[in-house]
Amino acid sequence: MIKYKLFGILSMFIFSLPKILPFTTPTKKENPAPAAPTKITEVVQLPIREVAVATKPIEPIKVKASVYFPVENQTDDSPLITADNSKIKYTKPSKHRWVAVSRNLLTRWGGTINYGDTLHVKGINNKMDGFYVVRDTMNKRIKNQIDILVGEKENIMGLWEDVKIYKLN
């Protein structure tokens, strides 16, 4: 309580200080008149230089695709946590649009894909084709395959050949 009273008295003193002490405002200096513009005698035109932009086309990676559920018999003993420690919402996991990739595709094991990369998946069907984020990895015995995260109650099953994935970032 005493602390607040001291603060109030101190703030009253600080805010009334400009009224008590005579302060003078500095006088504003006049800017000198601008110099007369100089006459341009020569115009130099520089040639427009074309810049070559090296764009590397996005190369597709041909893989198999399947689906997996966040349950212990299809994952490890913590099915709701992915390999990059993201947490899966169990009610409708397909809304995450997450995918697990085989280890040979990850940069950690010599591939070109990292956790968090966005993949464009083509070749499954109209409903499942689209963009997915890499959040999980598959068993080391599986090569050149992706697993799309779906829920058990969504009735989505399948193994698709000739699927193409494109790494976007």
UniProtKB/TrEMBL annotation:
Lineage top rank: taxon: Bacteria
Protein name per UniProt: 3D domain-containing protein
